[in-house]
Design goal:
- The chain is mostly beta strands.
- The protein has no helices and 11 strands.
């Protein structure tokens, strides 16, 4: 499984950005796809999860109501729409495939929220 994130960059506070994750390969025992983030000097944080069978979503309390995770099955893409961005959202964002055999990680994309 290979994951490639894109869409990061510099965004002003209050702005929006959409991250994309292109997935290739097959994880036969995958059950979810997620977005994590890691800010400088902090531990990695689970941001949002999309459960593959049900389509249900779950969010960290810090982003609930501002971020939306979605998936395009036909294109094998995962997205993270981020609105009302705050400086504390600054981090490297990672896309993952979560399977019963382990977690597959992308290389990450930097999002910087600053004026």
């Amino acid at each position: 499984v290979q994951l490639v994130e894109s869409g990061g960059g510099l965004v002003q506070p209050g702005g929006s950005v959409t991250l994309s994750c292109a997935a290739s390969g097959v994880a036969f025992r995958a059950y979810a796809m997620s977005w994590y983030r890691q800010a400088a000097g902090k531990e990695r944080e689970l941001v949002a999860t999309f459960t593959l069978n049900s389509g249900s979503t779950d969010y960290a309390s810090s982003v609930k109501g501002r971020f939306t995770i979605s998936r395009d099955n036909a294109k094998n893409m995962l997205y993270l729409q981020m609105n009302s961005l705050k400086p504390e959202d600054t981090a490297v964002y990672y896309c993952t495939v979560d399977s019963y055999d382990g977690i597959y990680w992308g290389q990450g994309t930097q999002v910087t929220v600053s004026s």
